[in-house]
Specification:
It contains twelve helices and seven strands. By secondary structure, the protein is an alpha/beta fold. The chain has a five-stranded parallel sheet, sandwiched between helices. The longest helix has 24 residues. The radius of gyration is 20 Å and the shape is globular.
Length: 293
Amino acid sequence: MSPSFNDAMLHENVHGSNTNTNTSTTPTSTTRSDRKQTKSTIQEPQLQSQGKTQDQNQKTTATTSNNSKFMLILGRPGGGKGTISNKILKDFPSFHHLSTGDLLRQHVREKTDIGLQAKKHMDNGDLVPDDIMIQLVLHDATAGDSDNDTENYKNLLLDGFPRTMEQAVALDKSLQVDLVVDLDVPVDTIVERISDRWIHPASGRVYNYSYNPPKVKGKDDITNEDLIQRDDDKPETVRKRLEAYNNVTAPLKQYYSDKGILKTFPGTKSDVIYVEVHKWLQEQMDVDDTVTE
């Protein structure tokens, strides 16, 4: 799959989208765990019609009853979300990682009902509506997956969604978010990281002059062909993208901060930041374990 297509998928909701309820499709139901039953119950129309208070109470009761955590990871593009997520998954194996960018590409590639709906909007040059993105999350959070053995996971780590206030509010109607990790890496650090990235277009091999440079500057290690820098990786383009991200996500961070579930981790190196992330997350999981004993 070409880099430009990947970038388009990952970028589909940075500027928000319009909810289009006409395209809704009920997520596939498969027996998996109490978490699946919880989300199915939350989405029943009769509960939604009984008012926000009862809906919130239902979500809170259901989440604590099955002792599961739903966590988000926020941060600027290029800020190390993937690196930190991988470390969390290694150290906290009860978490199942859901990346909406990866999920969207997978559903489009496999031509699932959700993927076909999303592709119609993408082919028209439109943003993928929030309701389809939430269906995507719910489908993969609740459906069994024999390849990944998701029966063994009781906690979920969501990466790439929500990215706007509208998406956060819409997601809140179906799932209760318990923890939010906010990675605060300076813009200049990210610009330097990304602008050091060069690729071999024929193979897709990626090099970075900061930590994974080619053996010969400007040349692919295998073919000795020229490396290129994508337009999206040029400093001026990166700064514009980061500025747009900051404008959109500032209210989102405040939204979760007001709920008392967001923790911000500043820094420039993922290995250093993760020490604090691990410490905080261990405290949250210890509290959870204590409650259930």
